[in-house]
Amino acid sequence: MKNMCSNLFDRAEVKRAYIGTERALIRLLLETPYEGEEIVYNLTDIAVKVTKANLSRPNLTEGYMNIDAPLLSYEHLNCTPQTWIPTKIFQSTSEEKRKVAVVAYNTSKQFLFGTESPWTMLIRVELLEEERAAKLEEPLRMRFPVFNTSIDPEVHAFECQFYDESGGEHSTWGKRGCSTTVDEGGVLCACDHMTPFAVLLVPAESIDWRTWQILSVISYVGSGLSAFFSAVSVLTYVFIRNPSQDHSASIHVSLSGALLLLNGSFLLNESLARTNIMPLCLFVGLLMHYGLLCSFTWMAIEALHLYLLIVRVFNTYVRSYVAKLSVIGWGVPALVIGISFGFKSHPNELYGLKSITLGNSTSSLCWITEEWYFYGLNITYFALIFLFNNGILLTVTVRICQMSRIGLKGKRGRTVPWKQVCTVLGLTCLLGTTWGLAFLSYGPLSIPMQYLFCIFNSLQGFFIFLWICRTSRKAQREAASKSS
What we know:
The protein is α+β, with helices and mostly antiparallel strands.
C-alpha cells in the first residue's frame, strides 16, 4: 500500500492512520490462539513474535523474561534488539492472558513526522491486557545494537525515545519515562511503559558530564549545609523562642522550614529513585515540588513584610498576621498542586521517575515528568514572584540609600556605607533574587551562570541562618539598651 501511494503516505494523518491499522493487526494476532509457547508472524513490513509468559521458564532472571525481537531477514541478524519483560505484570493475570508481542519494523518511515533521526531498528512491545502497559512498576528493558562509532559526542548523542500514540493528531516522539545508557555493546533503554521504541540521534547536551558532576557535588554539599542550618533555625525558634521577637523572626523561620523541606527531599531523592519503588518516588517528587513552591511563596511573603516595615511603616497592623501569612505560605502551594491534579486522572501522570542522560551516564530523579507542567507552572509561578520581589527590593534599596545619606551628613571620610551594602545583599538572598540566574543560563554565559545558580541557591538556607543570627543579635542589643 505504501509503495502504491507513496505521495499520499507522506501526509501525517495518513501515517497515523497506518500506524493505528498496524496496531489493530498486532492486537488481532495477540488475541489469536496458537499451539506452543511462541509463534512468529513474518509480514511484509513487520515481524511479530507472540510469546506466552511462562513464569517457570529457565530464561527468567531477576524478575525479567528475555525475548529477542523477531528476525526480519538475515541482513538484520546483528542489529536485532533484545527485550527484557518484567514478569511482575503477569502475576495477577490469568494464564491464558499472559501473552506479550514483540514487533520489529522493516522501516520507520511511518513514524517520521519532522526531523527525527532513528539510528536503530524500531520495535514495539504489546501486552494482551494493554491497560497494564501504560505505567509499569518495574521498567521494560531493551538493548539496541549500535555499530557506527563515528558520531561526534560534542554534536550528537544517542537517546532512547518512544512514539507517543496518546496524542492523537499531535502524536510525536518523546523521552518521558525512559532512561538511556550507552556502552560498548550498544544502547540500553529502560522505560516505564510499552509503546514503539527506537534509539534516536539527538543534539548533544549543552553541558558536559564533568561539569555536571562538579555542579552535582556543589548542589549536594550546599543543600546539605542548608538543610542542617535550616533545621537549626527551626529548632532554635521552637525550643528557645523569645516572646519579645517580632513577626520577622516567624517569617524567617517559616522560609527556613520550606527550604528544609526542599533540600531534605532533594538530598534523599536520587537514592530513593534507585529503589524503583514508584509510590515512594511519586511521594518524594511531589514533596520536593511542594517544598519548592512553598519556598517561592515564603520569599514573596518576606518581600511583602519588608515593604510594610520599611516603606509603608504606618497603619500596618493586621489581626492574626502570622497565622494568615502561614495559611498563604503553606496553603497556596498545596492548592496550586491540587488544582493541577484536575488536569490528570492520577498523580503518577505528573510525577515519577525522570532520567537525565549525559554522555554515557544516566541519573534518575523522582520529579515532574511532564514538561508542560514543569515549565508552565514553575516558571510562571516563579516569574511572578521574581518580578514582585525585585520591585520591592528596588524600592527598599532606594529607601535605605536615602536613610544612609541622612545618617552620613556631617561624617567626613566615610564614603561607602558597608552596613547598608551588606543589608541589601542579605535582602537579595532573603527574597530569592539569585534564583533569577536561571533566566541567564543561555549562550556563552550558560556555564558560569549555572555555577553561580548552584552555589547561591543551594546555600540559601545557610545564608538565611546567618541573617537570622545577625538580626537576633541586633534585637538583643536594642532590648538591652532599652532595659538599661
